[in-house]
Amino acid sequence: MKNSNQLVIEVNNLSKSYGQVKAVNGISFQVQAGEVFGMLGPNGAGKTTTMEILIGLRSRDGGEVKVLGIDPETEPNRLKNQIGVQLQNVFLFERLKVYEIIELFASFYPRPLPVEEAITLVGLYEKRNALLKELSGGQLQRVSVAMALVSNGKIIFLDEPTTGLDPQSRRQLWDVILSLKNAGKTVFLTTHFMDEAQKLCDRVAIVDHGQIIALGSPQELIEGNFQETALELARTAFTERKSLADVPGVKRVQVSEDSVTLYSTDIALTISELMVLASKAGVSLDNIRIRQATLEDVFLKLTGRSIRE
Ligand SMILES: Nc1ncnc2c1ncn2[C@@H]1O[C@H](COP(=O)(O)OP(=O)(O)OP(=O)(O)O)[C@@H](O)[C@H]1O
Fold first, then answer.
1. Rounded distance between C-alpha atoms, residue 181 and residue 184, angstroms
2. pTM for this structure?
3. Which ligand 1 atom is at minimum distance from the Cα of 160?
4. I need a labelling partner for 299 at 20 to 30 A (CA). Which of 51, 104, 276, 283 fits?
């Protein structure tokens, strides 16, 4: 349910330095109502700083920022009861029970979600009476997400919401974020997980060294950078590099120790021609693997580095 063209976040040429470090170096983007918008980048790229500026927790050095039409630096209080926020490593009062801290946060907002609903959404209903000090790291992380959700705010800000979670909890939280999206909420999230950005985000800003190096839907980013599909074959006598480079559709051939990857712009044509060649050579092609490019490939292509380095 996208409320088309209603801009809820507008950022123009934003910058912020800490001493010599340009944490945010002239970034611009807009977020529409109902979008899940992600900032994807390695540690230190400037994601948290950007988010802290958007929610009115940090001042900026330059640029313009509007969130729900409000400048977060000049009117933070008018903004804060309209947005829900989850931050990394927040200090939680460990002698409070789960429902007590969510109840406390609910009291900050004019139209909060029912406390039990927020707790149930993050899968902690069974733990609602547990003390925070009794929870695991992953459960505490989910409490901090519930603190954002209970706001029932127009925009939910999540800073690396699944870091430190086990795979099952991660998927559970992905479902929560997708259900927020289905309910028409705007979600702004930061992450360094490619699969998370690809699965959840309508649009992604890939950030590196305080700058946006690519912006678009995951599909646009992948298709804009990779016209070819990768096709991997086991390396055998059949896979002579020269002849494979001549197969119709093939633009590039990459040979590694035990496999050969063909980058093809016409995968159906390439496969059918390979079948003909293989049958002429009297070999079977059992282990063909077709791999779509991912956001990880996009980051690698644009920066020459893997996001986790
Ligand atoms: N309070 C601060 N004082 C000094 N330098 C800071 C401060 N906060 C962040 N930085 C630096 O600014 C840069 C951007 O940090 P930021 O936390 O915004 O990045 P990030 O992409 O969110 O990374 P992370 O995932 O590690 O939080 C980094 O070089 C970081 O060391």
1. 5
2. 0.84
3. 25
4. 51
